[in-house]
Structure formats: structure tokens, C-alpha cells
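User: My instructor asked us to take a sequence, write out its structure as C-alpha cells, and then describe one feature of it. I'm not sure where to start. Here is the sequence I was given:
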Amino acid sequence: MTSGVTLYSVGLAAAAGLMVLVWIASLVRHDASLVDRYWGLGFVLVAWVALWIGEIGGVRQLLVATLVTVWGVRLSTYITWRNWGEGEDYRYRAMRERGGAAFPIKSLITVFLLQAVILWLVAAPVLDVMRAATPEEVIWLDWVALAGFGVGLTFEAVGDWQMARFKADPSNKGKVLDSGLWRYTRHPNYFGDAVVWWSFYVFAVASGGWWTVYGPVVMTVLLMKVSGVALLERNLEQTKPRYRDYVARTNAFFPWIPKHTD
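Assistant: Let's start with the prediction itself. The C-alpha cells for your sequence are:
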């Protein structure tokens, strides 16, 4: 049986290898935001490589790899569709301007390889499931995890779909989406993303991998404090005057009944 150290090392190598290839493509396309399109697919690659290296291939391992694939392919497909024809994202354009001639090498380290490491850390529960020989069959904790995955994916996918429909209507320009799931949380897609990765942690707990808790913690902190909610809200408060009212009555992350404001 493959050791845990070998499996985790191969997982990191797979993530880094993919990101290096995407970095090369970004140099050709002059678009570092390609990394966002391959974020979800990176998890898919790591999951299936780990399944192969882990040499167990039981029903639990196949289930988790399939769920990671559903989540990752949906996310990458959506981001690709959303950003098609838009050019490089403003965040990476700003980094390119600051980096000057050294940006290609800087982007390899601070964007692509950094994301590979983060991806690897977040994927820890999935990697642990792939190396665990027990339990051999699906147990009750797996059903809890599967239910959590369904809730998380629903929030993420439906939230993205509702926002896409809202933006597609020209009459909504400058307005704030505050209906559907967006009535109860300002970021249902990010909340759903976090729930999905906590569900993978429950799968890991069922096979003894309680120590992989750092994976969903890293994802949740990123979504709430770094590249998700915090970054997006700074921009929205500057570009949409009505957003402050929305903030006053709607939870930022965890869904809840809207507050009444005067």
C-alpha cells in the first residue's frame, strides 16, 4: 500500500505541475487570470491521481473523487463561461503593472505556485480518504457528508445561476441582487463553497483523518477574509451606492433572515 507521505507528495506534485502548465499558457495569452479557470480542475486532478496512487479504489474513494469532479468541473466551467472574452481580471492587471518586466517570474511564484500549495492544503481531507483502507463501506458519517455536499453545491450553483440571470438583464445595471438565496446571505456561492469543503472533511473524519481540519479552515478563511468576501465587498461598496443598505440588512456569509432597517 502506498504510504501517506508518498500520496501527499504526489498530490502536491500534481497540483504544481498543472499550475506550471497554466502559467506557461498565461504567458502566451498574456492573461494570468487563467489560473482562476483551472482552480476547480486542479482539485479534480489531485483527487484522481491520489485515487490511483492510493491503490485502494473502494466505494468511498470513488464516491469522494466523483463528488470532487462534480464540484470542480462545475466551478471551472462557470468561471470560464463568466470570464469568456473579458480579458485579464483587474486584480492581475494591477499585479502586472506593479511587477513590470519581472511579472512573469513573480506571477509563477506568487500566483500559480502559491495557488498550487493552497490547493494542496485545502485538498488534505480528500487525500486522506484516498489513503485510508477503513472503513471499507459507506458509513453513517459519509451520509452526513453527502448531505452537506448537496447543500453546499446547491448554494454555490444556484447562487451563481441567480447572479448570472440578474447581470444578464440590462435594467439591473447598478442595482443589487437581494432576492433568492441572495436575500439571506450576501455571498451564497462562497458559503456553499465552504460547506462543500467541510463536507469533504466529514468524509475524512469517518476514516480517521480528523487532523486534516486545516483544509476546510484554509478554504473558509480565504473565502471570508482574503480573496472572497472581503476583496469583493471593498469593490462593491465603491461601485454600487445601494450596497451599503444591503450590507445593513443581510448577513455577509452565513444565511439568515434579513434584518429590518428604517
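For the description part of your assignment, you could build on this observation: The first helix runs from residue 4 to 29. Try explaining in your own words what that tells you about the chain.
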